[in-house]
Amino acid sequence: MTSDPKPTDAFQWTQEPWGRALRCTSLPAPHLFTSRDVELREDEGEWAQVAASLRIGRDRLLLIKQVHGINVAVARRGAQWPASRPQADIIITDDPSVAIGVRTADCAAILIYDRTRNVAGAAHAGWRGTASHAARAAVRALQEEFSSHASDLIVAIGPSLGQCCGEVGPEVLEAFRAGGADAYAMRHWFRAGDGDRSLLDLERANRDQLEDAGVNPDAIFTTGLCTKTHNDRLHSYRAQGAGAGRLLAAIRCRA
Question: What's the domain count of the chain?
Answer without folding.
Answer: 1
